Amino acid sequence: MALVISHSPAETEALGERWGREAQVGWLIGLSGDLGAGKTQLVKGLARGLGVTTRVHSPTFTLLNEYRGGRLRLFHLDLYRLETPQQIIRAGLEEYLRPDGVTVIEWAERWLGERHPRSESSVPANFNPPPGSAAYVRLRRVQIEVLSDTDRRITYEDSGV
What we know:
The chain has four helices and seven strands, in the order E-H-E-H-E-E-H-E-H-E-E. It has helices at residues 9-22, 39-50, 85-90, 109-112; strands at 2-6, 27-33, 64-67, 74-78, 102-106, 138-146, 152-160. It is globular and about 40 Å long.
């Protein structure tokens, strides 16, 4: 597990930008953290690292924003208004678990469940690729904790399916 302490929104964006430069097709990034922790700030940086030039904002009321124009498509989901995996599936979001690009999910624990440190897999049992999708997904689980008005503890861990 990796740990980063961010001392400003700009540092959080810079981390996201670095991840965006490294991103490959099939990456799934699950973000967890309280309101105002910096989840969308991280996504803004990620988009910049992918070369997306349009303004990035949280899709809280639309559930999904798709950004094109970068080297990969970016799918940005916000599950704040959905409470169960069943609601998420009924909303038609399941296809974004195997993205043709990069998917970032805010409030990911509502879909992927809570991460347990000694868990064999952090991917749910019903995590199956849709027909014709990539056979591999890299999942990065990210927890953002508020330490102060400006400081954030960002921990993350990668796994593959």
